Amino acid sequence: KNNMDNQETIVIDEWDIKLDNKIVELKTCQETNNLKSCTPCGVFFECELRKKYVIAVYESMNKGAGGGFEF
I want to staple 30 with a disulfide (CB 3.0 to 4.6 A). Which of 21, 35, 36, 67 is the partner? Predict the structure, then answer.
């Protein structure tokens, strides 16, 4: 039996790092404004930080390959 089958390889790539950074920024913003999520925030739809977070989530899923939301 191949030993590699039993081992999980953890790969940290640039997209995951960017996503982690955006999550920290978002959580910090929420804590600063005493919010548990972005939803009740008055600038929910205009927020550049939230927009960048959404982009980071998408890029972490497609690893920078581009394209649409095709899952």
Answer: 35
Task: Find, among 26, 16, 29, 17, the residue nearest to 52 by Cα.
Answer: 26
The model's pTM: 0.69
* 36, two tokens: 């548990």
Residues 6+ apart with CB under 8 A from 52: 22
pLDDT tens for 29-71 read: 999 999 999 999 999 999 999 999 999 998 888 876 665 555 4
Instruction: Output the pLDDT for position 37.
Output: 94
- Residue 64 neighbours by CB under 8 Å, 6+ apart: 14, 15
User: DSSP class of residue 34?
Assistant: T
Give me the residue label for tokens 């972490």: 60
